[in-house]
Write a structure and sequence with these properties.
Strand content: 5-15%
Number of helices: 13
Oligomer: single chain
Radius of gyration: 22 Å
Structural class: alpha/beta
Bound molecules: iron/sulfur cluster
Distance between the termini: 28 Å
Strand order of the largest sheet: 2-1-5-7
Largest sheet: 4 strands, parallel
């Protein structure tokens, strides 16, 4: 994987449509440099991710960055850890030196953060006092870790600066449901940025909401209805305020993986569109396949493929254009894992 130049932007909620790498047609995603195979770890090594290198790199253009190297720490370097208050930890050397390294690290990545506005997601290295997204240990003066865990200082700054951007630790992507949910959020974030944020309008918000109807239903029906009501009241609000509120609620609605039960309901709902055009026996067969998915006998890809086959012939444009049917490139094979 190449270390790409980061694209510059100056906005916390991104506004530019140009989020796709022009030459490759891939989506721009940030990546901890050690996961890309760069020898930047404290011990001079790397932790190259095969998932990123062999699979995701076919669709994502990785923008690699190591906040510790950017801050001027050498490679190799003494190990570092978080210390003090877990709600506001500081960075120091593990050796017990009292030197506070927090400012050095944050000064090193501050300018770089401004260049991450056109990323559609970020994959981080776990357990790092800089990059770890969750469960990073914070040590007390007596050398023992607090029970309460924290987040690496760079990961926290990234989350503060871009609160809606999908972030995930590489290790968690080995869980099929978390992996699928991360990729789905990356593409949804990308679609919203390019289709709505580029030039917000009521028409674009409604078109986006319509195309994500079944994705939302599968994740959170209450949120789907709430978002619909938000758009219903929309004309009374300034379009930029409405767009920002919609984006926040939308990303929150899809932040957790959809359950098997909700997928099943969504598939049955879509099957209803074939009621008038497909013979009853064929619909019963599809319903049987959906039932087997619900029972865990078949993966999600089986009823989805069957439905898509019939919708291609008998479905309206509205249902064929639903993002639920193809929320990300089919070649990632994610629906095989669910
Ligand atoms: S600071 Fe982040 S990118 Fe750099 S070596 Fe540590 S985990 Fe990897």
């Amino acid at each position: 994987m190449n270390n790409q130049t980061i694209i510059a932007t100056d906005s916390a909620i991104p506004t530019s449509p140009d989020t796709m790498h022009k030459a490759s047609g891939k989506i721009n995603i940030g990546l901890s440099a050690c996961l890309a195979g760069h020898e930047v770890r404290y011990n001079g090594g790397h932790t190259q991710s095969r998932l990123c290198q062999n699979t995701l790199s076919k669709h994502f253009q990785f923008k690699t960055f190591c906040p510790e190297v950017a801050a001027g720490f050498s490679t190799p370097r003494p190990t570092m850890r978080l210390t003090g208050d877990p709600d506001s930890p500081t960075l120091s050397y593990t050796s017990g030196s009292s030197e506070n390294l927090t400012d050095q690290l944050t000064d090193g990545f501050r300018h770089k953060l401004e260049q991450f506005g056109e990323l559609d997601g970020y994959i981080l290295m776990r357990n790092s006092p800089s990059c770890g997204l969750e469960r990073v240990k914070v040590y007390q003066e007596n050398g023992y870790p607090h029970e309460k865990k924290s987040r690496g200082l760079f990961a926290q700054a990234l989350r503060d600066r871009f609160p809606l951007m999908p972030l995930e630790e590489e290790g968690r992507l080995h869980d099929a449901r978390l992996y699928e949910n991360f990729v789905l959020r990356v593409y949804a974030y990308h679609h919203f940025r390019t289709e709505v944020l580029a030039a917000p309008s009521m028409g674009k918000l409604i078109a986006f909401h319509s195309s994500y109807k079944y994705v939302l239903m599968a994740h959170n029906q209450t949120a789907y209805r709430k978002l619909g009501r938000l758009l219903g009241r929309g004309a009374k609000q300034a379009i930029n305020t409405l767009t920002a509120e919609y984006f926040q609620q939308f990303m929150s609605a899809i932040s957790k993986p959809a359950s098997k039960k909700n997928h099943t309901n969504t598939l049955l709902h879509i099957l209803g569109y074939l009621r008038k055009s497909v013979p009853s026996q064929a619909r019963q067969n599809i319903a049987e396949v959906i039932k087997k998915y619900h029972q865990g006998v078949l993966p999600l890809v089986t009823p989805l493929t069957l439905l898509k086959h019939y919708l291609e012939q008998y479905g309206s444009d509205y249902i064929r254009n639903q993002r639920y049917l193809s929320p990300y490139p089919e070649s990632l094979g994610l629906a095989n894992l669910l």
